[in-house]
Write a structure and sequence with these properties.
mainly alpha
Length: 155
């Protein structure tokens, strides 16, 4: 099972005071943006040296989950950036939750699906810009996944 880097970072920041949140996040960034697993582990060690006196739980959590986090480094940087940049996905999920929440209950599952379909159509009209660097990531996906990426997606 592969853990999500975003959730690992968020879980780590739960232990940090608001005053030091930006500094800790910047040091965590050096771990998950490292070029290789080895570099990431060295950055984790440097993070532990700097922050273990104040927040020892963070480096322990990263070490405990290290085997589930390392498959992330098998992807090229283009794809990794798309993976840990989740704002577009989270925005979509928030919009769909809002539609469901305001409606309350549904007489049957088809009614819920119809509402979600209509909400997606409405939300899609507002989409103007794709995920940053999506074209570069899509090219990498095409190389790695071959015919699983439709040719019309590359146009």
């Amino acid at each position: 099972m592969q853990l999500c880097i975003v959730h690992q970072v968020r879980a780590s920041l739960n232990y940090v005071s608001w005053k030091q949140r930006k500094s800790v996040a910047a040091d965590l960034r050096s771990i998950y943006r490292a070029a290789t697993v080895e570099d990431a582990f060295l950055n984790l060690e440097a993070f532990a040296e700097k922050w273990d006196s104040a927040y020892p739980t963070i480096s322990q959590m990263w070490r405990r989950n290290w085997e589930q986090l390392t498959p992330f480094f098998a992807y090229p940087a283009d794809i990794r950036k798309v993976i840990y940049t989740t704002n577009a996905i989270e925005s979509l999920n928030m919009s769909l939750r809002k539609v469901i929440k305001t409606r309350g209950s549904f007489p049957n599952p088809e009614a819920a699906l119809k509402l979600l379909f209509l909400a997606l159509e409405h939300i899609a009209k507002k989409w103007t810009m794709p995920v940053q660097d999506w074209k570069a990531a899509l090219q990498r996906f095409a190389i790695l996944l071959g015919d699983r990426v439709p040719l019309d997606a590359l146009a």
